[in-house]
Amino acid sequence: MKILITGGAGFIGSHTADILISRGHEVCIVDNLRTGKKENINKKARFYNVDICDRKKLAEVFEKEKPDAVIHLAAQTNARYSIKNNKVDKAINLNGTKIIVDLSKKYNVKKIVYSSSAAVYGDVKSIPTKELAIKKPISPYGKNKLAAEEVVKKNGISYAIFRYSNVFGPRQDALGEGGVISIFCYNAKKDIPLTIYGSGEQTRDFIYVMDVAMANVLAAEKDITGTFNISTNKKISINKLIEILFSVSKSKSNIIKGDKVKGDIMHSRLDNTRAKKAGLLNKLHDFSAALRETIKNV
């Protein structure tokens, strides 16, 4: 199968490309390298330095490659950035997705795998959160991701929409818009202080990037359609995260307490029953082992 990955030089996209190639698929990658890195790109993939918002250049890629499936991962991923820059977020996350969908339809793509986010739910009260829960996104990022989901659903092509929980692992940028684990791993390895905002009792559903990448691959391969939470359905507090991190890293970092971040969600955990039944999350990595692998690759 020939698969086009948008954002294939990025954190999740590059791991997805590696697995696809290891399974014998033909992979082409579209990435503008604003956050993706050229060194992440698998040497067996064909690479196009193209922005997903550039319809003309993107159409040239589709015309040349004519992919069987598209895994659409390219995005603006910082919710806080979206609050001050909604126009930019909308241009990439909503309008960019519209272009991907239009071209997929024009060039007879058979399957779209779209990376959405837990941000579409907002500060939901039902934990663990199921796919049919009421959506009240609190950031433009969440709102644009939710609107883009509807674009993907209505295109007439088979689709899998994935709402990721908190993804972590190697290649995540701790110096840019990285998640809390990538930042903590970077600091812990260099014995730089770790900052806990608020009580540290806020919980998250952390999932290893290799589990997410494999779900992307399986969705492209399998005859499934629908919306799925891609998560572990397990909660880990920030305090517990640091405890485990210190046990696997032997770090000498100090802990600094900061004020609670305004608008920060206290608890987030996604129900992954539907994804498990679809065979998308067969065997998840152990958290401590995955954390050890992450810090080793910082």
Could you give a quick summary of the protein structure above?
The protein has ten helices and 13 strands. By secondary structure, the protein is of the alpha/beta class. Strands 3-2-1-4-5-6-11 form a seven-stranded parallel beta sheet, with helices on both faces.
Helix content: 25-40%
Beta-strand content bin: 15-25%
Mean pLDDT: 95
Main sheet: strands, sense, barrel: 7 strands, parallel
Shape: globular
Rg (CA only): 18 Å
Please state the second-level CATH architecture of the domain at 2-169 and 207-232 and 270-283.
3-Layer(aba) Sandwich
**Which spans of ≥5 residues are poorly predicted at pLDDT below 50?**
none
SSE order:
EHEEHEHHEHEEHEEEHEEHEHH
Distance between the termini: 33 Å
**SSE-based structural type:** alpha/beta
Number of beta-strand segments? 13
Would you kindly provide a written description of the structure presented here, covering whatever features stand out?
The protein is an alpha/beta fold and 298 residues long. The protein has a domain at 2-169 and 207-232 and 270-283: 3-Layer(aba) Sandwich (Rossmann fold). It is 38% helix and 18% strand. The chain contains ten helices and 13 strands. The chain has helices at 11-22, 55-65, 79-84, 86-106, 140-153, 180-189, 209-221, 238-249, 273-277, 287-296, and strands at residues 2-6, 26-30, 46-48, 69-72, 111-117, 158-164, 166-168, 194-197, 203-204, 206-208, 226-230, 236-237, 255-258. Strands 3-2-1-4-5-6-11 form a seven-stranded parallel β-sheet, sandwiched between helices. It has a two-stranded parallel ribbon with strand order 7-10. A two-stranded parallel sheet has the order 8-13.
